[in-house]
Amino acid sequence: MNNPQQLRYSKEHEWLSDAEGGVSTVGITEHAANALGDVVFVQLPEVGDTVTAGETCGELESTKSVSDLYSPVTGEITAVNQDVVDDPSLVNSAPFEGGWLFKVRVTDEPSDLLSADEYDAHIAG
Q1: In terms of Cα–Cα distance, which of 65, 108, 83, 66 is closest to 27?
Q2: What are phi and psi of 46, to 5 degrees?
Q3: For residue 2, what pLDDT is reported?
């Protein structure tokens, strides 16, 4: 499994890009996508919603289970990936590219986000 070095990761298996103009992109990791199985439904926050780091902000439903989506940071949703809503399988096929979930204008970032190497160690258990 290849977790991109330039991203940061939450212990709940979300990834976060570096902010561009104060806005970061969020998705779930390949590890989480594989653990979920085939994603068949995605519920995302709406543009304008405020999300809080570590709090539930959506849901991913797969053929195996329903899993909460957590925000890795606090901020305001600036965009959601409609392509993933229309085709949830993108979460499985391209979790770090076309399968991103939402963009957030970050107002607070927790200090416990992990580097790629730290996340690899976390999932290795």
Answers
A1: 83
A2: -100, 155
A3: 82
pLDDT tens digit sequence for 55-93: 999 999 999 999 999 999 999 999 999 999 999 999 999
Separation in Å, CA 103 to CA 5, 49, 87, 118: 19, 11, 18, 23
Please list, in sequence order, all residues whose beta carbon lies within 8 angstroms of the beta carbon of residue 41, skipping any fewer than 6 positions away. 59, 60, 61, 88
Name the CA radius of gyration of the chain, rounded. Answer: 13
What letter represents residue 20's amino acid? Answer: E
The DSSP bridge partners found for residue 50 are 76
Specify whether the CB–CB gap between 50 and 75 falls below 8 A: yes
Strand pairing report for 14-16 and 8-9 = antiparallel
Of 3, 5, 9, 30, residue with least CA distance to 109: 9
User: In 9-86, which residue ranges form alpha helices assigned H by DSSP?
Assistant: 30-36, 82-86
Element of type H or E holding 15 = strand 14-16
Listed in sequence order, the residues at least 6 apart from 66 whose beta carbon sits closer than 8 Å to its beta carbon are 59, 60
Longest dimension (CA), the chain: 38
